[in-house]
Design goal:
By secondary structure, this protein is an alpha/beta fold. 33% of the residues lie in helices and 26% in strands. The protein has nine helices and 14 strands. The strands form two sheets. An eight-stranded mixed β-sheet has the order 8-9-10-7-11-12-13-14, covered by helices on one side. Helix 4 runs parallel beside helix 5, helix 5 runs antiparallel to helix 9 and helix 7 crosses helix 9.
């Protein structure tokens, strides 16, 4: 068996716990190091997930010669700085979405990785979820015919205070970057790049969006109707409407475990579970790339991430969302 890939984790919040739990399921992975600005927090996290090392600074982890790849799970506005730091120290990087909060950041990160011949990938785990792969197979086989339009939403009621990460402009808050990125990514994955974007939003006192509605138009006249919100619970489903029928990715669509296809009176249901918390499949993609010395994933290339943030930037401009 090929040697194990040694992982490091920077930023030890909720998502890092889910990721580390799935890392323990991977036979090809070892948690080599975890880092927080609080060494006590890092030690507690490391003990829970059997990390070899625990660090009280991100730089110390990036300096560990045994670490092959670093997973960056800090708030959005730190992604660029910390990715560049890890790349400069020769580390491969899996950076949680959104990779950058604007196109210029993502471009800088991609250039740094390419110039050093290092692996870099955005942590868009949706792409590797088995149900997403099945959806792409069904679309490719023309199961529902020509794709005419999609509707996808992502909403939950947040009781967080205005000081929380979700609402802090200085941390890249707002529904668009936090959860709206998922319906936008799905639209790009299924329909490609839009020719026209229209968007509207409801803004908070902290000048980020608590609700965002997006209409994307395509050269072939296909449409995508997308929504994100922190204001209320929504179905968080995606329905793809084709000329022959419909395909539904059931809640939550970005890591769905059930697909329903309806063509005329014929209804077919697919139950497609994922491993662990769902991050396992993304982890294995990175491991596979590193083992084969690939600097990009052919399923989620750097160009895909560059295209995604350009769409997000256009939506931000439409709704008047800016970050300092």
């Amino acid at each position: 068996m090929t040697r194990k890939i040694n992982w490091g984790i920077i930023g030890l919040g909720n998502i890092a716990h889910l990721f580390a739990s799935d890392l323990m399921l991977s036979e090809r992975s070892t948690l080599r190091g975890v880092a927080s600005r609080d060494l006590e927090k890092a030690t507690e996290f490391g003990d829970q997930y059997h990390s070899v090392k625990c660090y009280g600074s991100y730089e110390e982890l990036a300096d560990d010669p045994e670490v092959d790849v670093v997973y960056i799970a800090t708030p959005h506005t730190f992604h660029c700085e910390q990715t560049l730091m890890c790349l400069e120290k020769g580390k491969a990087v899996l950076c949680e979405k959104p990779m950058g909060i604007r196109s210029a950041e993502t471009e800088k990160m991609a250039e740094a990785a390419r110039s050093r011949n290092l692996f870099l990938m955005e942590g868009m785990w949706t792409r590797f979820i088995p149900a997403t792969i099945k959806m792409l197979e069904l679309l490719k086989s023309n199961t529902i015919g020509e794709l005419l339009f999609i509707h996808a939403d992502f909403g939950f009621k947040s009781d967080a205070s205005p000081d929380s990460r979700l609402y802090k402009r200085s941390l890249g808050g707002g529904s668009l970057l936090d959860i709206g990125v998922y319906p936008v990514y799905l639209s790009m994955l299924t329909l490609g790049l839009p020719a026209e974007i229209k968007a509207t939003a409801r803004m908070t006192d902290t000048k980020v969006d608590s609700y965002c509605s997006m209409l994307l138009n395509y050269d072939n006249d296909a449409k995508a109707v997308l929504e994100s919100t922190f204001e209320t619970e929504t179905p968080t489903e995606a329905v793809l409407y084709g000329s022959r029928g419909t395909l539904t990715l059931h809640s939550r669509f970005h890591h769905s475990e059930r697909i329903t296809v309806k063509v005329g009176e014929n209804v077919q249901q697919y139950d497609i579970p994922y491993m662990g918390n769902g991050y396992y499949h993304e982890i294995e993609e990175v491991n596979q790339c590193l083992i084969h010395q690939n600097t990009e994933s052919d399923k989620l290339s750097l160009q895909t991430s560059l295209n995604l943030i350009k769409i997000i930037d256009n939506i931000k401009e439409e709704i008047g969302l800016t970050y300092s």
